[in-house]
Amino acid sequence: MAITAAMVKELREMTGAGMMDCKKALTETNGDMDAAVEFLRKNGQAKAEKKAGRIAAEGLCKVVVKDDKTAAVVEVNSETDFVAKNEEFQKFVAAVADQALATSAADIDAFLAESWNADSSKTVKDALVEKVAVIGENLTIRRFAKVEAANGCVVSYTHGGGRIGVIVEAETDVVNDAVKEALTNVAMQVAALYPKYVSKEEISADYVEHEKEILRAQIMNDPKESQKPEVVIEGMIEGRIKKELKEICLVDQVYVKAEDGKQTVGQYIAQVGKENNADLKVVKFVRFETGEGIEKKEEDFAAEVAAQMAGN
């Protein structure tokens, strides 16, 4: 099938690989996007899940907490950073966050359709449309998350004036200032190092096997590493997968404030629990980053791709 500039653009956004590498991958896989991602990863040209880290939109993330038991985080996008700093916009984002704290909606469509708390004659979407007219830029309520702690507490952390918003939920039989401070430190860790899971227990065996397959393909595509004995290759794969899992699991990450530079987040939480006679355990986190996964200048980028493809 014909490989279009739009297809190359999409694959590049997903993987971070070069345009010509993306074109080759799509050609080799007959335009199958998923297969092309696998092709690039196995050949070491893709940065896994690069798309999730692309920051290209403006706006704010806002977190609100009620009684240490319930928290909500929202992301509301604007076209420019100028509007994101506008007081009118910031008040609207705060109202959206309060709405999320009280909502029972299961998804963003249901959230937008529910009655606006500040004026029950309107829906949330109506309030958004009105704000667009007032501010003069396209605005979107992109996503929300609500966390309720049944057997513990929730804490929040906001970084960069609203660029990143984090909620951490913990199970604990003691909720005091020391425990909440420790959990806030953990929330800062989540903001800084972007874990994907709380612990290895959340990771499926299929995910681990798939990552091992990718690592094996990378090794076999390396002229030097592929010549090593099978037992050595297996050892390399096991070592690399363990390193990867430590990086993506919160409790296994090295705690950023560790005095010895070695203490993990899990060990830090255990220490705080012991010091406060608390049975303390982190059970969940939510991390929103403004503009995550959004490509802002799509038309210009598509033209750039088309131009480079035409020249090759």
Major sheet size, sense and barrel closure: 3 strands, antiparallel
Q: Please name the CATH topology of the largest domain.
A: Tetrahydropterin Synthase, Chain A
- The total count of helices amounts to 12
CATH superfamily of the largest domain: Elongation factor Ts, dimerisation domain
CATH architecture designation of the largest domain: 2-Layer Sandwich
Range of helix content: 40-55%
Q: Radius of gyration in whole Å, from Cα?
A: 23 Å
How far apart are the first and last residues' alpha carbons, in Å? 18 Å
Overview of the structural elements:
This protein is α+β, with helices and mostly antiparallel strands. The protein has two domains: 1-54 and 296-312, Ubiquitin-associated (UBA) domain (Helicase, Ruva Protein, domain 3, Orthogonal Bundle), CATH 1.10.8.10; 58-198 and 282-289, Tetrahydropterin Synthase, Chain A (2-Layer Sandwich). It has twelve helices and eight strands. The strands form three sheets. A three-stranded antiparallel sheet has the order 1-2-5. Strands 6-7-8 form a three-stranded antiparallel sheet. Strand 1 and strand 2 (70-78) form a beta hairpin. The radius of gyration is 23 Å and the shape is flat. The two termini are 18 Å apart.
Could you give a short description of this structure?
By secondary structure, this protein is an alpha+beta fold.
